[in-house]
Protein 1
Amino acid sequence: MVTPQQIDEYLKRVPPLPEAIGSSLKHLGEGDLAAAARAASADPALIHYLRRIVNSAAYGFKRELKDPIQIFSALGIQRAKQLLYAYMVNSVAPKEWSYFTLEGDEFLNFQLSFMKRWEKIVSTLKIDEKFMSAAAIMSAGLIVADAIFADHASDVALIKESGDFDLDTILERVSRLSFERLVASIAEKWEVESDVIRLVSLAFGKEECEGGTLCEPARFLHLLLFYELSRPAMLEAGANSFISFNPEFSMPVIERFEEITGVE
Amino acid sequence: MRPVVKKQKIALFTPQGFLDGGSATGLITMQDMEFTKSTGVQMILVSMKKVVFFNKNGIAILLDTMMKLQKEMRATIGFCDYNRKQYEAFFNLFEGEIPFSLFKTLDIAMLFAGGRSSKEEGEENVLVFNEDSTQRSMQAIEIYDRGYNPVVVQTRDEFNIRAQESDKFVEKVDSTYLGFMGSRIAAKTRGNCVIYYLKGFLDGSVTEQFDVIYHQNCLKVGFQLFMFDATRVSSLNIHAANFFSRLSTAGAEYGALIAIVGLDMEKTPKAFVEELEDAGIMFFDTENDFFTDEIVQSMTGGGSSVKKDRNRLTKPVVARLPVFVEAAMGTLQMMTNIVAIKGDMKIQPFVASGEDLMASSVAFYGDIEGMITLAMPKKLVQKSCMLLVGEESEDDEVLSDALSELVNIVAGKSKTVLQEAGVNINITLPRSYTSIEDLSATLDGLHGVQVNFSFDQYPFTFYLSP
């Protein structure tokens, strides 16, 4: 159905960081928001995206932010980084989804909600803010899944009639690869910090995780992903079975998660 | 979310993550409801295996949809695959007044849905415990009605002790709650025989309680022995007698034998018995008498007279042969990532090719009718079912089930392609064979199209029969 060669071809087609974003991220790494904003200004599509997002209800700034320097200053270093990666993820998203029945802004809304809630968890738990980008990176998994299974929707539907298979399990059984690995490959291509990539990998919930500093954040991120994938739009789009949910992995943080996110 | 249909008995929804007021609205859409209705299943369940959070609002929204299905399909609705904490949460949320059923595992649900096959003759014990005495009795009765022997214990401690004797029980039922149960006649399969369990006074309502589609599907895939266990029947009236008579006549073209076992002859009007005997129905005192009867024994290998009057393929079926062959080849290639090499194709009786073979069939009906059989060596079954099973299993039962799923996928794929061409078919439940001799006996006397393939060194046979 899907061969490792086809997946390799797909990964080769994922673009590296454009110069404007690479340079902007470099300046953010140095803590220079103004220089980062100036570098980002070289990409009008990026600025258009940032204006749209920061002026949405999700960010709730009191006045409209237009100027790139204003935007970057209002966001701060880590949130700006997060949005640059979110922009990259959106840039590889399909215009029309083939496997998942996502329409219009549904993916964008999912990603935004995922990032905002993750921000809240990061700040409440006082996790290092550099991990804020993890949710944006993780959302790339859905795009990879859609690309890989685009031409196999009917085959997958038939396989899923035989059992409650998630796409990751099918991928692993036919190609010995997993979305966790594919997302990590893309993140590496985009020069994401290695411990952020490690957190994203752990948050797929497939590895034993005991005691490490990334363990608890990974449990929260895994749980949050499935909170977002349980929303009606994502359920109806078939995204709930993107990867396998691991209840045991999330169980230690469920009560705290409910408190932070206000789930009742 | 599309449900997975388990053994044509249970439609199972398996959401992952959260089941709250927001998510529940998107779980079962209108299309999912239509699909579920088209399956004609007896149970509609939501698995809680991968649900980490649920609240009353979410369950109430979901129930609203499920109850609509229950009303239209007269099906049992509920939840399964939960842990003890979730089980207790259901009672707390609904303050003890639960309007649905709860099954600790899918296997337990399948026991109540009558979708389990039995391997051996004789008593099959089911251990039962519930804190509530009414539930204990109710569950014991339902289990008994399905042909099992309930062993009821009064305390949790006793249950835990008895549960350790695992070889004595085919199932251990606890943390299970029966709400409204559908009133369909329970059925289970044993080898080549389908056993139905009847109870009470049989009148015209037997027509509504009997799952005709399931019965027809069994006939189409070659089941020939149908035993009605009437040991718990008080008597029957003319409407019920007519029903059995019609059933026997309809099964005659498939060479099917219908037997009624354990009916109290003193309470049954002689005229009814004579009428039923004239329709070809046989009567036995006990299950043992039935299974040791010479005629019955001659048919337990699968029989040799499937559809005697229709032993050749019709032109419209042959015209669609490429669709079925492509679907079989495509599915196997998809499952194995091995390129198939097509061999010879002939109209002929089925000829087994290769050693250590396993086989499974599925029948289709509608605009065209026929049966697809796939036969291949166990090694190829292991390879092709890895995607479904997850590993190269050695377990024959696991492989047999996976092969049935594989043949189901082939039929499903064919159905989709045919539908696009304006040809509508329905597919039956798949049937796997205990041996290749069993398959050969079922296909004996038939002329179908046999296409031989090879996948690497393994032979693979596709057979399309009337």
Protein 2
Amino acid sequence: MNPTANPVAADIAFEAEPASSTEVTITGPTKPTDPTDPTEPMRPAWLAVTSEPRRPDPAYAPAPAAAAGPLPTRPALSQIEARHVSAWFGAHKVLERVSLTMPPGHVTALIGPSGCGKSTFLRILNRMHELVPSAALAGEVLLDGADIYSSARKVQDARRHIGMVFQKPNPFPAMSIYNNVIAGLKLTGAKTSRDAKDEIVRRSLVSAGLWKEVKDRLREPGGGLSGGQQQRLCIARSLAVTPRVLLMDEPCSALDPTSTRVIEATMEQLRREVTIVIVTHNMQQAQRVSQQCAFFLATQGKPGVIVEYGDTDAMFAEPQDSRTFDYVNGRFG
Amino acid sequence: MTPRTVDSIPTTGLSPVDADGSVPADGERRHRRAVLPGRFTRTHVVGDDGLIETPGGPDVPRTVSRLHREDVLRLVGAMVAAVATTAVLFTQVLPLNGALAFALVAYVLFLGFYTVLISFDADRVTIMDRTAGVVIHSAAGVLLAALIVVIVFTVARGAVAFRHSNFWVEDLSFAGPLDPLTMGGMAHAALGTLIMIAFALAISIPLGVLCAVFLAEFPSPFARIVRTVVEAMTALPSIVCGLFIYATYVLIFGFDKSAFAASLAITIMILPIIVRSADVVLRLVPATLKEAALATGASHWRTVWHVVLPTARSGLMTAVILGTARGIGETSPVLLTAGYTTFVNLNPFSGPMVSLPFATFTLVKSPEPTQIARGFGAAAVLMVLVFVLFALARLLGGTGGGVLSSGAWARAKAASARDAARFRRKRRLARAAALNRGAQVSRREQRP
Amino acid sequence: MTESHGLASVASADTPRPVSPGRSRGDQAFRIGAHGGGVTVLAIMTLVGLFLAIRGAEAIDTAGGSFLTTQDWEPNSGRFGIAAVLFGTLAIAAIAICVALPLALGTATYISEYAPEAIRRALIGIVDLMAAIPSVVYGLWGMFWLEGSILPVAQWISTYFGWIPIFAVPDFDPTDPLATPTVFTASAFLAGLVVAMMVAPIAASIMREVFAQAPEGEREGALALGASRWGMIRSVVYPFGVGGIVGGTMLGLGRALGETIAVYLVISPVFVIQPHILHSGTNSISSLIALKYGEASAFELSALMAAGLVLFAITMLVNFGAGIIIQRSRSGSAS
């Protein structure tokens, strides 16, 4: 789907963040050493991943370039892929061998009725699932071909590369806006100079579409912002550690329509920098923001599975499965 | 959807009976109705069509106070009647005297009169409401008044002693019971209190917070056992803490009674208090915050250090301060373990040392008025110390995370302004550098 | 185009895979440190409890069943028991709670429901502050102020309510104009009042905190139904805060049972069961310890520890009871 084909999103993007394009042009020249890799300044050396090459596994390469639309595919964008993922809470199985490739530069929307395991699936993608004491899982999650659950990898690394935005905005109440954004650096123990911090704060807030609104109140507590602003602050916080994938668990369900639009526009901008996976209950939202869609369903007493997945437009226009048809047309669930 | 419900909804929604029943029959509203009942023909723009008139003049807020003149009159009337009746009772009927007894009788009568007065023109629910309100107000009044009496009484009696400056800087080594209040003071006890509580806190704060973190962050059957034992130990009477240290440290290990022994007794007393309240506070930190921190790739200890502890900071502070206030004010652990002395002893490990509450306790048992005055003075100083601690707690951690005091707001605003200025400066520099570079590039291009 | 999944058909068995937590060294150290803290606190607490139990058991062994029934305290001659002091302790605590509960409940309700917004914060501060006033201050107040003021009240109660056994004062003849009111001094009633003043702010502080958490939606729901303020409090705030009421009261009771100094200062210790609470002379376990530890022999110390152990057991029961009730109540998770 062509991003500019969504007039509302483009409009909002323009209204909300007219500075974003100028920001890029201004900061671009400050790092002119490597013009071929514009994302380089976003990935400082201390965050560079040296342990594994950023090369997608050819066997699970992303869909052909046509699916990526007009966006140029950049080497820095990552692909995340789930292979035969099952999940349990205690003895209760909630996901049954789910496989899904979320290609780089795409927004992948996970849709489906409540309790079908989409959120569990999302939490498995950055190892938040195992925080629940009774939780277990099977299968693999490959980030650019490397299994994030392999025993050679630290759980913190997986989570640092795969950021997450939660349903309810949850800025750290004891921190200012500025400190909220760089919380990830502090929390991952990164030593950063003040200039680098400033740069990260500005870039992250610009990327999250919040910079203009908060640039004069950076030291005020993050809890004082409106709900939509808080959620964008949380997005900025996730972006500050330059994740390769950003997971969003119903990021707009607690927000009003205006804030939702702003966040959707932000996502449209963001997918140039990071692969996005979003869980949403809102069918229109899935249609507006995503290029790829996966429909989850759990029938009575059985674990959740993906019924159908693929291009978002096709999913909504002519779904193959009758259950998908019912769901996307609001007849069910 | 079944056909039945499809049919039934429009039928009930549009039935003329329903519409007739709900629409007032005046013509003014009827002309806005369409042929189909329940539908308006058009909407109206406020101020355009004159349907809603704006009154001239400023709009005045209406009073919605629930306090009526009658209520006040009833209260006053009942009060006057009660006082008058009590006066009659006390002077004519009952062999009674004393202000407290008078107040008690008057209050009971007042309640009765008030209820009767309301019952003249109110139903049962209102009577209950008003009477309960009066009872609650008076309970609060009595408790607060009693507490104020406690404080004012102590300070007033103590002022006799502590208004002399020597009270603050001298000890009692040369001032006997019969010496006037211009001699001797409580410096030794104040220092003793501070030394004892400092040692107790040096042990119990790190240990207590660490244990609370363990309880809150590593839930396991073992943690549950620890929690249960700690909860049980909050019930340990303070005198028993003293008795334990007296029996072990002093009698079995053979050390002298000393400030350190008293610190140990205080530690045993306040450690469970601190652990328990800190545990509660830490568990109140929303799980979503911890998740958010972990989701950025934080390690567990960094999450605790940078997110959990700062978020719970005010609660932790309260826990510690409450423990401190308890530890400073308790006499009984010190009574058994510190020994009594009249001079300044700064060595916590040998020789007796006295604390303010212990000094108060010892002095007021003396029959000499000067000693009693000194005891009250020590109690007043102790109270001031506790008040200061509380004010400190309010100042340092009184507000929850993210809730700023006005001073903190001003600082945050100032810091924000500094940051904004810095960012603007950087942007200007970047822009200048970019222009500069652009100029260089164009010059280079021009050169060949 | 989209694709439909058939049910996955992978040959390998679908079993949970082991997931290593992959802890960093910092986390490993943190884990060990935190566990160390927990173990240390547990060790200290268990040590104290065990020591008391072992030493106390010696004395209880010697005295046998009479430990609970004997009123005297002469451990060296073998005649000792806690009947009198235990009764005194319970009587003082009971009086304290009877007085403190209504006051605390009223104060907490007033602060959370009635007080004007402007003074509410100040009142909260005052009550919390009162909860921290050292007990010796309450002792002073009871000794030098309350005792004198309460005499006529005690006298009045015994004169007019003397027909209720516990208010009777046999030595006092109200018809005798020369009867001295000194029989009313240093009574369990006085000690109970002093302790009540001490524990009421503690209880009120806890109750107030729980009341404030009563959900706004339910309050407004009740008021929207036309309930009076009292009706709303009774149907929403109190049922919600019942855990806090019980918890606060029990916590106050625990403090009342264990209070030493305030009681020690106002009572005149006797070693008989004094069922007439207005009559001079009573005793409590903690003041017994404060009174006797100084010149105690090793065995006497054991006896004192046994008494302390009994007090500890009672307080613990009260605390655990409170804990269970609070946990079962709706507001429990919060407090």
